[in-house]
Structures are given as structure tokens and as C-alpha cells.
Amino acid sequence: MITIFTDGAARGNPGPGGWGAIVVTDDTATELGGREDHTTNNRMELSAVISALDSIQADKDITIYTDSAYVVNGITRWVKGWEKNNWKTSQKEDVLNKDLWEKLVERVGHKVIHWKLIKGHSGTSGNERCDVIATSFADNTPIVLYNGSKERYGINLLIKESQAEHKSKSKSKAYSYVSKVNGVIQTHKSWEETKARVNGVSGAKYKKSTSPFNEEEIIREFSD
């Protein structure tokens, strides 16, 4: 079994960005990181997963922990429809980050991968360490990456069940609604307010959020 933690960051979104990953086998722990001068948070989230998978030689069962709903929903739900529609969204727009999605689709082929969406900044040590790596690369700040024995790695890699999201968002009570109209993103406390803003507007987007964390993820998604 291989366990992977990933995270991405972008200053300004778009702006300088970085990604971080931890690849854990039965015996070893390896930290990875990278940087781009002008990028987005979502591109860095995708780059972290792709680079982590590139570092694995054997096709073993893999569990990937990420705080990016964009990555998890994209690879488990949206990407099949995008491929069928020649990489167009349901609104007939070009899929953003198509180059990276194509790479990720190629990397996950013939692998057994368990995707786990976790809450960011909630005490998951592997995720917190990836955030440190990603932001350090985004800020162009030197950081020492660990590569060695899992036993001697100083990061707690255990995951509590409460730290992963298990509830279906579609059946959960709304925390808020997020809308994007003419490039402007707003949050609303009621569906009526949201509907009044998006109704009849070409290209408008909206989604229900179920928690502050989920609201942040939707805003990230709409910002890319």
C-alpha cells in the first residue's frame, strides 16, 4: 500500500505557485515539491498529484489524501463527461487545465486509487506538511525535503476518520450558496437570493456549499 498526501498553493491566484507531496510506502517517506512563476491554485493541486504518481514505480494500491474538492470531483466524476464532450464543459466552454487533466487521466490508468477528500488546516499532519512545502516553493523560500526511513520521519501520518469528508453534499443542509456572474463571485445565505442573481444570466455558475471548508473549495474552483 502506498499513501500520498498532496497540496498546492498560488500567491494571488494567478501568481507564483508551489506544490507539495508526501509519498509513503511500508518503509519509506519521500517529500516532493515544485514551483511555477505564474500559475493557479488548482494547477498546483493537480501538479502535486501528477508528480507524486510519477515518482511511484510499482502499481500498488494507492490512497491519495487531498484537500482539493476540484481534484477529487474532477477525476472521479467530471473527467469522463469532459472526454466524451471533446474536453468541453456542460456550458460548451473549454475545460480549464486540460493539459494537466489529460496527464492525470494517463497516470491513474490501470492503478487502484482510493481518493480521500480531507479538510485543509484541520490538524492532518501530512496535509499540513504539504502546505508548508507548497507555500515555501510558492514564496521561493528554501526548504529541506525529507527522503528516508518512514520510521525516522517526524510527521504523524495517521488519519482520523473525522478528518475525512464522508457525507454526501447533495443530501447535506446548505451552509451557503456560491455564485459567479460576469466573473464576480459572491456568497449567499439563501437559494432565493442566489436564484435572483443567476436566473437568466448567460454563463452564470452556482453551487451549494455544506460547510465553511466546502464554501472555500467552491470559491477556489470558480476562481480558476
Considering DSSP H and I runs of 4 or more, what fraction of the residues is helical? 25-40%
> What gyration radius follows from the Cα positions, in whole Å?
18 Å
Could you tell me the mean pLDDT? 89
Q: Identify the strand order in the major beta sheet.
A: 5-4-1-2-3-6
Give the helix/strand class: alpha+beta
Would you count the extended β strands for me? 9
β-sheet strand percentage: 25-35%
Structural summary, described in words:
By secondary structure, this protein is of the alpha+beta class. Helices cover 33% and strands 27% of the residues. The protein has six helices and nine strands. A hairpin with a 3-residue loop joins strand 2 and strand 3 (28-39). It is globular.
Briefly say what this structure is.
The chain has six helices and nine strands, in the order E-E-E-H-E-H-H-E-H-E-E-E-H-E-H. With 224 residues, the chain is of the alpha+beta class.
SSE layout:
Blueprint: E1 2-10, E2 15-24, E3 28-39, H1 41-54, E4 62-66, H2 69-84, H3 98-108, E5 113-117, H4 125-138, E6 147-149, E7 176-181, E8 184-188, H5 191-198, E9 205-209, H6 212-223
Parallel strand pairs: 1-4, 4-5
Antiparallel strand pairs: 1-2, 2-3, 3-6, 7-8, 7-9
List keywords for this structure.
six-stranded mixed β-sheet; 9 strands; three-stranded antiparallel β-sheet; 27% strand
